[in-house]
Specification:
There is one protein chain. This protein is α+β, with helices and mostly antiparallel strands and 174 residues long. The protein folds into two domains: 1-36; 38-165, no CATH class. The chain contains three helices and ten strands; from the N terminus they run αβαββαβββββββ. It has a four-stranded antiparallel sheet with strand order 5-4-6-7, covered by helices on one side. A three-stranded antiparallel sheet has the order 1-9-10. A hairpin with a 2-residue loop joins β6 and β7 (125-127).
Length: 174
Amino acid sequence: MMLSVKWSRAVVIAATLLILVVVNGSIWQKERHLAEGEVVYLELAPVDPRSLMQGDYMALNFALSNDIQRALQSRHGSDTPKAHDGYAIVRLDEQRIGHFQRLADGEGTLGNDERQLQYRLRNGQVRFATDAFFFQEGDAEHYELARYGRFRINDDGEPLLVSLHDEALVHLSP
């Protein structure tokens, strides 16, 4: 009986340590991604004005999402998948704003000014890292001028939203 209790405690402690290692490893990867990822700006596309500001978050849509959606429909027609992960190729201008070029097909090389961005298609909607930007309650007016999202992308093309910016790429914050 005593051995069983000790064995149970050892299993609980080992499981707890394993969970802590996995969680901390994930946090370290995201922190590294935010610190070392390449900066890319993506233009915001209009969303339903009624859902633009809802309490403590802003619904987001990106012009690039709409471009990808049109390219997928052109490629697949009515057979466009409802769920799909893929990559879009964007060209960076002198301000590091990403402009849609094409869907990645797994072949060819990227130009010096081109980057690969990962996207997810879920329920027919193209998404990047997020479809919302959260902020403290009462700070909505600071983000009404948002026109660009600033992302950090890693070597795998995975984007992480960092901040929102106005038309002149000035960082918006309270």
